[in-house]
Design a protein that fits this description.
This protein is an alpha/beta fold. The chain folds into 2 domains: 174 residues, Rossmann fold (3-Layer(aba) Sandwich); 75 residues, no CATH class. It contains 9 helices and 10 strands. Strands 6-7-8-3-9-10 form a 6-stranded mixed β-sheet, sandwiched between helices. Helix 4 crosses helix 5. The longest helix has 17 residues. It starts with 13 loop residues before the first strand and ends in a 19-residue tail after the last helix. The structure holds adenosine-5'-triphosphate and magnesium ion.
Length: 269
């Protein structure tokens, strides 16, 4: 009898189980479970204070859960340091872009990619390795449309350009999971269009968790959505179903504004 070779199943890129984070009497993230396949395009939405950034902090490792587990591509990273998670493939951009203003655009990306480069050791003394770092950085700047201004000092960039640089720095880690905290915040319509083009063009091997208030960005980029409210999962599912869910509509404006900002107190049910 011939044996048929079995192919090991690919583990989810991210598997969160019953994740909880309390700050004193406030439970910012409350019993959140979420499983995302490789290459997922997932959005996390919810009103201000819903726990979205805290959830990203827990996944990235800048904050620790009181309860629950975080498994990245089959590896339990719940107790692993941020730098280790980053080397395992988690990258993020922040609600406020975190570029180093004194450095050039290019150097920001070279620096961000440094810990991830396979030939980083001794690279300062090796012109070819240094060149390979620089070429990688240029590739990411080209992806986000900043290659033409690679040698400008980052402090001279517009808000939109800083956001793109923040994204290039996150991509420099060659992530398998990219965490984006409100990447469209403060962008012009033109910049949002460019951002959608860039994110939509990332390879399928890069999973994205997008925290975003702009519903059109969520609708265009995400195939699945989790809605958080007061730290808890209200709904998880395909984007259109989740956005149309009656409980989700209750916590947001119901008007025509293409924006998921929380409803003012007098408009909430
Ligand atoms: N380090 C902290 N210490 C105490 N409370 C915190 C801390 N970080 C967050 N919180 C609280 O946890 C809750 C969730 O905050 P979080 O920043 O995760 O919300 P969010 O959904 O990202 O909101 P926004 O849409 O305004 O960015 C809020 O009530 C916030 O005040
Ligand atoms: Mg936030």
């Amino acid at each position: 009898m011939t044996s048929v070779p079995t192919v090991a199943p690919v583990p989810p890129v991210l598997d969160l189980t019953r994740l909880t984070r309390r700050y004193g009497s406030l439970t910012a993230v409350d019993d959140v479970s979420l499983r995302l396949p490789v290459g997922a395009r997932h959005a996390v939405i919810g009103p201000n204070g819903a726990g979205k950034t805290t959830l990203l902090n827990l996944i990235a490792g800048t904050d620790r859960p009181d309860h629950g587990t975080i498994v990245l591509s089959g590896t339990d990273v719940t107790r692993k340091a941020t730098a280790r998670r980053s080397r395992l493939g988690i990258a993020r951009s922040f609600q406020q872009p975190t570029v180093i203003p004194e450095l050039t655009v290019l150097d920001n990306v070279v620096l961000a990619g440094w810990p991830h480069h396979p030939k980083r050791r001794g690279a300062w003394r090796s012109p070819s390795r240094l060149r390979s770092h620089t070429e990688s950085a240029f590739r990411h700047l080209t992806t986000v449309g900043l290659a033409d201004i690679a040698h400008r000092t980052a402090s001279t960039l517009s808000h939109g350009q800083r956001r793109m640089l923040d994204l290039a720095a996150a991509l420099a880690g060659e992530p398998r999971l990219l965490l984006l905290d409100e990447p469209a915040a403060g962008l012009t319509d033109g910049d949002i269009g460019r951002l959608l083009g860039i994110l939509g063009g990332l390879p399928a091997s890069v999973a994205i968790i997008l925290v975003e208030h702009h519903v059109e960005v969520v609708a265009q980029l995400a195939s699945t959505v989790t809605v958080l409210a007061a730290g808890r999962v209200l709904v998880t599912g395909p984007t259109q179903e989740a956005l149309a869910h009656p409980e989700v509509r209750d916590v947001y404006h119901t008007g025509t504004k293409a924006d998921m900002s929380p409803a003012p107190a007098d408009q909430r049910g």
